[in-house]
Amino acid sequence: MTRPRPDRRSLLLAAGAAATASHALAGSAPAVHARRRRPVMVGSANGLPGMQAQLPRMMDGLEPLDAAIEVVKVVEADPEDMSVGLGGLPDEDGVVTLDAACMHGPTHNAGSVGAIQDTLHPSEVARLVMERTDHCMLVGEGASRFAREYGHPKVDLLTERAREVWLRWKEGMSDRDDRLSPKKSKKSGAADRPYRYMGEELTLEQLLTTHRITGTIHCSALSLEGELACCTTTSGLSFKIPGRIGDSPVIGAGLYCDQEVGSAGGTGRGESAILSCASFLCVELMRGGMAPKDAGMAVLRRVTEQAQRGAAWQPELVREDGLPAFNLQLYLLNGAGEYAGVELYGTHAFSVADEDGARHEQLEALHG
């Protein structure tokens, strides 16, 4: 008996069903979101002033990459904020070096700069790398020279207050060198003013005793048209070894964006985000169907497990109770406009901007 020959439509349907099943088994089926015409921005607490300024423009149709970069530029140019850019804390030699990256969902393209010096807006230079070169990353002297070629002036980023903090750190490093800390004065002065860092006000003592200060700003944006983009920029780890690059300019670590799924970024210990590919993993877990909060918590559990394994050769990675001795915050946004902010510990805030306005919300902690 001759079997009837299947028509072309039946063959296409069968092939589509087989491909869908294969993707599902592999855990890589593209996420399907009910897209809403809803502009949303999500990011670190210090992004709030920029989000307040850009939200009306987002409501009018501003491109998401434009919005994300404009949000972070506010902190890059603020000399009173010691977490990013101008006024940021320097490396151990007293030199301010910056890292930044951006990623554009619709084109799935990205650009970044690492250890760039004397440049006010590394976020803009990262965009130039993405749009005007065939590279993803430029670092060091090459990144600085590239910035000058495109009209970014040379700017001294070390403010007087940041220099004072660096000198106090240097003087307190050892009691076996020739540096002496200044005598305490009863007169009040500029040093008595609180230092603004990551949206918080800290005393000089808090700045110097906080375990490895990590200053960063991240913003993920979903436009009125449903397009996604993100940007992260940082002065990096305070008093770091010269040449150190953290997670912020590493695509997939400090930030990641996929137009089919969503966007994510982080602040905190950059090395933990690099070793876990934290932002990429957040997006991939959302691709598999996880809600933003669940995806973020799953990544933090992975980070916790990795720190515990690493403690075998680096004991300072964990506390006495076996949990990480550092913090990491993650900010997640999917294509439907659903978002979350999570962290390992604490009661810190993150920034959100949508049709309900720009505001701070509380991060949800994995370990309380």
Keywords:
8-stranded mixed sheet; 32% helix; Glutamine Phosphoribosylpyrophosphate, subunit 1, domain 1; single chain; alpha+beta; 368 residues; globular; 5-stranded mixed sheet
Give a description of the structure.
This protein is α+β, with helices and mostly antiparallel strands and 368 residues long. The protein has one domain (35-173, 201-365): 4-Layer Sandwich (Glutamine Phosphoribosylpyrophosphate, subunit 1, domain 1), CATH 3.60.20. Helices cover 32% and strands 24% of the residues. The strands form 3 sheets. Strands 4-3-2-8-7-1-13-14 form an 8-stranded mixed β-sheet. Strands 9-10-11-12-15 form a 5-stranded mixed β-sheet, covered by helices on one side. Strands 5-6 form a two-stranded antiparallel ribbon. Helix 4 (122-132) links the parallel strand 3 (109-117) and strand 4 (137-139). Helix 2 (48-59) runs antiparallel to helix 3 (64-76), helix 8 (270-276) packs across helix 10 and helix 9 packs across helix 10 (292-310). The longest helix is centred in the first third of the chain and has 19 residues, at 8-26. The chain is globular and about 60 Å long. The model is unreliable at 1-6, 8-26 and 186-190 (pLDDT under 50).
